[in-house]
Amino acid sequence: DAKTTQPNSMESNEEEPVHLPCNHSTISGTDYIHWYRQLPSQGPEYVIHGLTSNVNNRMASLAIAEDRKSSTLILHRATLRDAAVYYCILSPEYGNKLVFGAGTILRVKS
Amino acid sequence: EAGVVQSPRYKIIEKKQPVAFWCNPISGHNTLYWYLQNLGQGPELLIRYENEEAVDDSQLPKDRFSAERLKGVDSTLKIQPAELGDSAVYLCASSLGFRTANEQFFGPGTRLTVL
Question: Can you say whether the dihedral through the CA atoms of B83, B115, A100, B7 is positive or negative?
Answer without folding.
Answer: positive
